[in-house]
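User: what does the whole thing look like in 3D?
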Amino acid sequence: MPTEPRPVSPSRLLFAARVREERQARGWTQEDLGERCDLSWNYVGQVERGTRNISVDNMDAIAQALEMRLADLLLPNPY
Amino acid sequence: MPTEPRPVSPSRLLFAARVREERQARGWTQEDLGERCDLSWNYVGQVERGTRNISVDNMDAIAQALEMRLADLLLPNPY
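Assistant: Here's the predicted 3D structure for the full assembly of 158 residues, as structure tokens:
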């Protein structure tokens, strides 16, 4: 019997919300962010909606584009 | 012309090292850790060597197995 697929993780949803928040705080569109990390606006949209099980290398690229530590995109906004 | 593949990210290597460190601190084998998060020992080994571009959901599962926040597996060991 195959293993059940995992449900969407809390970390995926937290990352989704934090990326949206930090992108909007900079006044960037999804396309602006995507261009800065070589991802499509469509991919960025999926990440922000939590429909993409994004990999660590792409998370790192997004964090670098936002000039943040990846860890800080996996913690609630402190403000 | 296709985009170059991304190089292995700093976050991937940091996560790899931190998982190994925290697993060993608990005296667990790779198989022990794998069993606690429904991943194979082989997969855990690849993650710890940085040869797997692991997804956020699997990173979350490993953090839960270690009873840690994922963010703390993406920061250097504070001790």
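In plain terms: The radius of gyration of chain A is 13 Å. Residues 24-73 of chain A form a domain with the 434 Repressor (Amino-terminal Domain) fold (CATH 1.10.260.40).
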